[in-house]
Write a structure and sequence with these properties.
Strand content: 15-25%
Helix content: 25-40%
CATH superfamily of the largest domain: P-loop containing nucleotide triphosphate hydrolases
CATH class of the largest domain: Alpha Beta
Radius of gyration: 23 Å
CATH architecture of the largest domain: 3-Layer(aba) Sandwich
Distance between the termini: 58 Å
Largest sheet: 7 strands, mixed
Structural class: alpha/beta
Length: 526
């Protein structure tokens, strides 16, 4: 039986929760109480057991031991339908969407069958207008960016009128303006007497929104606090057990020659959806990190595809690596030119979920010389490479060489970033480098990016986390509606100015090639 607690009966409770996967305990005796009218944070490093606990509360997993209660009564959550029937809604970090269906069809999957298509679209429009979560109901999910897919998850949850809303990294792909809109929604839901369980590695958000926090480490509850009384650094230290240091750009590193050059790149999109790229020009020098900011759906995925070779440019010279035109080359040939790439979508794009980590290591190295330095046969070399990445980037896993899909989102992100950084590329293009990782891992990844630039690589980092861009980028440009603004030194702009450009204000220009004086300023700033 659950213990007797002081104060009002919790809306939902979890007591003595144990979840085993073989010999591994993802949750080990976890107690959690969530009360109506509060936003409760669940904090922990990657692999701490947060997502497992949330899946138990949402009926996706059955606990090995322990009970879940609703208003003091023990309940059995056999599946998500049972959880939704009790008023539990969840916004997932990894999107639970059917890519071949439209936005409206995905939302209809969890709505009453009696609700017709016209009524559903009307409800979607109302929620979208009220909360600023606008989406075209007829667009297929496969054509949407990660940020737009996140909006589907949020709208789908809100349409169910939940009493408890579980949010797993809800702002990880949202811009500051979009996040502010979401916070307004969450505070309104709290004021209506609903309960919210909030998982985020953005600790300033937690301090702003949440009145209570439960902290997991190694599958166990290791503490609780009022996050409003803590600093972001103290919360991070509670999560990981050590103080999190600040990243340090390499000092005194001059910029090298231009290594990545885009020259008037224009790219139309296939079909009716997507964002066309319009006359994009940009240079990235060796030793430099250039950050690309923008609201999801403004051409980030298309720009990444044009750089990686997944989409070919109309002319070879529109994309150049180290002076060589590569615009008409595919991804394998571009990797042979010394480039590496990390897309924003982990599962299915950056990694094959059903393949082992060693096989996933092979996917991006099979046609390059990157394995030869291990001095083994290819199968042995890929296992050695995977273990090298796992150790260097502290990837938490169950088993010696598990399938990529069994890792938590943050740990898979660490593996993918490590896989590409440790290839020592001359050019690295990354979309959302620290999506879903904890504070310690984010600092480690950002430091690794800065160190790679310090060794002479040219880095293009696409991110919706402005704090991240201002921390690591020497210059920042904004992508809006397929058009790129001029890249300016991070030290000469502000979050507010970048935010205006992201929203289409502030005079977005198409020229992004900084003059030599600007490049020198960027070098000093970096």
């Amino acid at each position: 039986m659950p213990p007797v607690t002081e104060g009002p009966t919790p809306l939902f409770g979890a007591y003595g929760i144990v979840k085993r996967f073989g010999d591994f305990k993802a949750n080990d005796g976890v107690d959690l109480e969530i009360r109506a009218g509060e936003i409760h944070a669940l904090l922990g490093e990657n692999g701490a057991g947060k997502s497992t606990l949330m899946k138990i509360l949402y009926g996706l997993l059955e606990p090995t031991e322990g009970v879940v209660t609703h208003r003091g009564d023990i309940v059995k959550l056999a599946n998500p339908e049972a959880a939704r029937a009790l008023g539990i809604g969840m916004v997932f970090q990894h999107f639970s969407l059917c890519e071949n269906l439209t936005v409206a069809e995905n939302i209809a999957l969890v709505m009453p069958r009696s609700l017709g298509a016209r009524a559903l679209k009307k409800k979607m429009s109302t929620v979208g207008t009220t909360y600023g979560l606008h989406l075209d109901p007829d667009r297929p999910v496969w054509s949407l960016s990660a940020g737009e897919r996140q909006r589907i998850e949020i709208i789908r949850c809100l349409l169910q009128d939940p009493r408890l809303v579980i949010l797993d990294e809800p702002t990880s792909v949202l811009t500051p303006g979009e996040a502010e809109g979401l916070f307004t929604v969450l505070e309104r839901l709290r004021d209506e007497g609903r309960a919210l369980l909030y998982i985020s590695h953005r600790l300033d958000e937690v301090r702003r929104l949440c009145s209570r926090a439960t902290i997991l480490r190694g599958g166990k509850v290791v503490g609780a606090c009022d996050p409003r009384q803590e600093s972001a650094r103290s919360l991070a230290a509670m999560m990981v057990g050590v103080q999190v240091g600040e990243v340090k750009p390499p000092s005194g590193v001059p910029l090298g020659p231009e290594r990545l050059v885009l020259s008037n790149l224009s790219l139309t999109t296939s079909g009716l959806h997507g964002t066309a790229l319009v006359d994009i020009s940009l240079t990235v020098a060796g030793g430099e990190i250039v950050g690309i900011a923008g609201i999801a759906g403004n051409g980030q995925a298309e720009l990444f595809d044009a750089l990686s070779g997944e989409a070919l440019a109309p002319e070879a010279g529109m994309v150049a690596f180290d002076g060589q035109p590569v615009g008409r080359l595919g991804i394998t040939q571009r990797r042979r030119h010394g480039a590496c790439f990390v897309p924003e979508e982990r599962n299915g794009h950056a990694a094959a979920p059903t393949l082992s980590l060693s096989d996933n290591a092979l996917l991006s190295r099979h046609a390059t010389a990157g394995l030869s330095r291990f001095g083994f046969l290819r199968s042995a070399a890929t296992k050695a490479l995977a273990q090298h990445v796992i150790g260097a980037f502290d990837v938490r896993k169950a088993g010696p060489d598990p399938a990529a899909g069994t890792l938590s989102g943050g740990n898979l992100q660490k593996f993918l970033m490590g896989r590409e950084i440790m290839a020592e590329p001359g050019i690295l293009v990354v979309n959302q480098p620290t999506w879903g990782v904890d504070a310690l891992a984010a600092a480690h990844i950002r430091q690794a990016l800065l160190d790679l630039a310090g060794r002479g690589a040219a880095l293009l980092v696409i991110s919706q986390d402005l704090d991240e861009l201002f921390e690591i980028a020497g210059r920042i440009a904004v992508l809006h509606d397929g058009t790129l603004s001029r890249a300016v030194p991070a030290s000469e702009t502000s979050r507010e100015a970048v935010g205006l450009l992201m929203g289409g204000s502030g005079g977005v220009g198409t020229e992004a090639v900084a003059p030599s004086s600007t490049r020198e300023a960027a070098s000093h700033a970096h």
